[in-house]
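Budget justification note: compute hours in this period were largely spent on complex prediction jobs such as the one shown. Inputs:
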Amino acid sequence: MERYTPLSLTQLKAGEKAAFINLVGGRGIAGRLTSLGFTPGVEITMTQNSGTGPLIVMLRGARVALGRREAQKIMVQREQS
Amino acid sequence: MNLDTLHGSKKLDNSATEAKTSRIALVGQPNTGKSTLFNLLTGLNQHVGNWPGKTVEQKQGFFTLGDRKINLIDLPGTYSLTANSPEEIITREFILREEPDVVVAVVSAATLERSLYLVAELIALPTPLVIALNMVDVAEHEGLRVEADVLQAAIGVPVVPITATRAKGISDLLKVVMQTLEGKIISAARLPEIRADHRQALKEVISIISGSVPSPYPTDWAALKLLEGDAEITNMMQSCLPDGKWEAVHDVLREHDDAMLAVASGRYEWVVRMVRAAVARPRPGQISLTERLDRWATHPISGPIILAGVLGIVFWLTFTVGAPLQSWLEEQVVVRLADLTSSAQGSFPAWISSLLVEGVIGGVGSVLTFLPILAIFFAAFGFLEDVGYMARAAFVMDNLMHLMGLHGRSFLPLFLGFGCNVPSVLGTRVIDSRQARFLTILIAPFMPCTARMAVVAFLAPAFFGSYATLVALGLVALSLLVLMLSGIFLNLVIFKGQRSAFIMEMPLYTLPNWRTIGMLVWQRGLSFVQKAGSTILVLSIIVWALSRLPDGNLETSYLAGFGKLVEPIGQYMGLDWRLMVALLASFVAKENAIATLGVVFGNASEATLAQTLATTFSPASGLAFLTASMLFIPCAATVAVIRQETGSWRWTFLNLGLMLFVALVVSSVVYSIANLLVI
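Corresponding output:
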């Protein structure tokens, strides 16, 4: 079986999809993120990531903007296209 | 049933009604069209206030349904019922403690999966639930068809499809609400379950706490909230569980520290089952309108350009529509009222006429003349929020705002301050975190508003000739610099460098709903007149009294006496008592500084006044005076809304103290530097 290394959400390019794994060091924002649908295994599509500043992802049929610092705490696993 | 007949009979007759009053709570996530539905049902028959002890807006209204009077309570928009924010606590406490007769959950068909998450929480509470499936039209545009009857069968709770923006499906919704009120609908709700690997832990917690959970909280619900790590419920249970039992609960929780995800995952598994059953995608894979617009609106280069264009239009509207309307009101209403009062002078003593003309009418006038500008700003603000652009503006400006520990949401309210600080402070309601909101309110009055710029425009040419524009631009830049530095400083000192997280839903772009925007303008305008209006009136009368007493002469008044008293401080800024008095008088309204100088310099006409001042004072003093007017304590109207929005005089005085201090220090520095450069 192939093994994937977890990466931070900020490393995804626009158009790429990934599965949410967990939050690293984001206790303060965990509650808000889970209610927006960030639960293990959920598919996240990066829609906007310009390399600096905030980014936009699509999950569970809705768009969510995240500050770069928040996005850095979100660990994901890239899906094969 | 027709909506018009509903509105037609909305009399609020408390004494004579024998009709039963039923309470219905409206709940939903942000951007689901909840307010549109609320406005549609209650019309103008609504009351806006704050939840007791909170700065969260509380809206309720009345309408009649059959023989019943309905009290509709609009609960704050929340994504979940876990204690992440005051909104979430207010919502669940209201449902559990106040026990409304029915809860209507507004769900957006366009973001069904996410918006059903709140339903997964509501369904576990004891109150009867009706789901209003809104935005069916928007969903179809996005290529989604939601089958309401399938959803209803799957969840086991009535689901009524509506399009609130076009008042469609409302009578069906009310019919189902009525049947639920009459107990004719017995729901057989299917409840979400915690993820399988945590079922045992949940059972353990339930068995430990059962019998010890205070009313009105259901035991199963409290157990789930404990596993979710909900701070409020954890504290409550810790204090009311008998000895030994809390330790037992704590052991289970420690063993399952990922329980929060298990609870949320369980709810989302439930949601996904419902969505899979009820959603058809007749046109998959199409690129939605929102996606196409966002390519431009959130792009790192075109995004800021579009934002600049949008803001340009807002200000163009303010100056072409608002400013003439403002001066028309000033001439037609305020001046005429003053003339009328003066002409009736013979009938009462001169001081009363002066009080009425300068104190009362002056105060009422400034409230009145604020209204056109406020209405335009609120309309523009409401429009941008309603069509979904507000979130994009916040996204684009997020980087810049980070410097001050704020995030993108603070940008638009701050920017409005260029026009007027009052809507700027009121506009901070769009900021979701309390800390970011209060910080924005504290620094917003540093934005150079049009009234302050008018003072600059009047004096700068006389003092600096062809350099006037440069000086004006320099003063704006200085104000913005002071604003940013104050933001950074306050964030470090008061908020300990915390940064509120930027996590924001980007709603779909939708067509504007004029009713929603109109209601926003009406409510904000009304609350400004009612609350801020009275404060402005009182402050304006106080300043009038100080400038008249004891003998009716400004030069010998208490205000002048105070100006002379603080003249030693003024020396550091190169200001004599006359300029200090002008600065103090600008508290009523910024442009008052000029009028006051006119009086002090023997009623010189406006044309000669600027020249007189330029020959009396050195350019360094002139520059220091302009600097001080830019940064000096905000006008009475702004102070009134700061008090209204923070709900506290402490925050208001913090702002006043900060601005007073900054104005004195910065203009002293400016005066010294200017003197050095000139010599």
